[in-house]
Write a structure and sequence with these properties.
The protein has 301 residues and is mainly alpha-helical. Helices cover 60% and strands 7% of the residues.
Length: 301
């Protein structure tokens, strides 16, 4: 028994050393390079090597993962090793719910790895006890991924129906399920999802990320609303309106929607499209041959 304890102590210090050494080296020489945690062994290897101390090693790596996310969310936003470390943590301790929930949201909303997010969430659904009070979030977030990113509304509705069967889930979920089955291509549904995700998350950093995404979806919904009113204006007056306010004065809209990001809507003189003075930004990550990350912001149109 003494040898096992000694081994796990050595293993813990080794993993900690890899993390802190790589972190310090990166800060000093390459502030935006990827940590050496990419080269940690797989979860299956560590599970065999931990000699029964799987949860201890998982807790250590989970703390490092949270610290890494918090540190990078305000700097380079480089989380490219996150899926690897989350797989290790959830393999060493497969019954802990929160790494699946947190990781599932981060991988999709922040990194854009939707398939890896779904794999992690489904892994959680297989391992976490269904009696866990937050179990329903796993199929709920999976439903959001299929609805928002993949536009697979039937699969999204199936997972949301699964989530709605748990007594801890909100009472409005069955109604949202019917909306998904009937008319899913609407930003309003994504808004409901995101508001629930914001209310549920325990991470301040993640809450702020989700609020930004919610504001983007609200902006998208506002533009669709104004585009529909513009088309109705054309059918009525055989011309396009020159301003948003003209549609309001003529009763085509009863209010001028507000952009939560602080932008202003207008009608383009070029093609009569409804636009916003604030362009939606899409984060694109490019990796060069030296594995250095370059981040470009490009407007979505």
């Amino acid at each position: 028994m003494g040898k096992k304890i000694l081994f796990i102590i050595v293993l813990v210090f080794f993993i900690s050393g890899v993390f802190f050494c790589s972190l310090n080296m990166d800060k000093k020489y390459h502030p935006f390079t990827i940590e050496d945690l990419l080269y940690l062994p797989s979860g299956k290897f560590l599970k065999g090597a931990a000699l029964g101390f799987d949860e201890m090693v998982a807790d250590l790596l989970w703390i490092k993962a949270l610290a890494y996310f918090g540190g990078h969310t305000t700097t380079d936003q480089n989380y490219l090793w996150m899926s690897h470390i989350l797989d290790i943590v959830t393999t060493l301790d497969p019954f802990s719910q929160y790494p699946y929930e947190f990781g599932g949201v981060i991988l999709a909303t922040e990194i854009g790895e939707v398939d890896k997010s779904n794999l992690l969430l489904k892994k959680g659904m297989e391992n976490v006890s269904k009696t866990h009070e937050r179990y329903w979030y796993l199929p709920f977030f999976t439903a959001f991924n299929y609805m928002y990113y993949k536009k697979d509304y039937k699969t999204a509705a199936d997972y949301l129906k699964m989530a709605s069967k748990f007594p801890q889930s909100p009472e409005y979920l069955p109604l949202l399920v019917s909306r998904l089955y009937a008319d899913a291509d609407s930003p309003e549904i994504a808004i409901v999802f995101l508001r629930e995700m914001i209310n549920s998350t325990q991470s301040p950093e993640l809450k702020e990320k989700l609020k930004l995404r919610l504001n983007e979806v609200i902006n998208q919904n506002n533009i669709q609303f104004l585009e529909a009113a513009k088309d109705q204006f054309f059918l009525k007056y055989y011309r396009y309106p020159e301003t948003i306010n003209e549609m309001f004065k003529n009763g085509l809209i009863f209010y001028v929607p507000v952009d939560p990001r602080g932008g202003t809507y207008y009608i383009s003189k070029k093609d009569h499209a409804v636009e916003n003075i604030i362009k939606t930004q899409k984060l694109k990550v490019h990796i060069d041959k030296k594995n250095k990350v370059k981040i470009n912001m490009q407007p979505l149109r």
